[in-house]
Amino acid sequence: MSIEKMISLHPNVGDDFNEPLAKAARHAMLCSLFCTSCADACLAEDGDMRQCIRSCLDCAVVCDATAHLAVRRTGQNVALLRAQLDLCIQACDACATECDQHDSDHCALCATMCRECAADCRAALAGVD
């Protein structure tokens, strides 16, 4: 199963399949889960992890919305999609920066996923017009 296959089967896609956008959608979906898991793990940590939890949960919500918008192909709202991809980049960059400040394996993994998601969103943004 792949989201790429699902998108390619959409009647409005045809030869207009956007591989970078599909990859960004997949990574945004995964990033949302990574960030949610990291926030939950931060709840179990000693010390004040409020800002990390907030950054992770904000990023999770933004990534989830990005994944949803990126796979919708009926009609178009290019301006909204571009704005959402840009917002996802910002949220992922902020979350990665926050997670880098903590000495935990879950934060390190979350930061890595956020960087991958941001890179994929940048690549997708370049091809959305």
From TrEMBL:
Official protein name in the record: Four-helix bundle copper-binding protein
Gene3D superfamilies given in the database record: 1.20.1270.360
Organism: Sphingomonas oligophenolica
Cited CDD domains: DUF326
Coiled-coil segments on the chain, per record: none
Pfam family, one: Csp
InterPro entries: Csp_YhjQ (IPR005560), YHJQ-like (IPR044543)
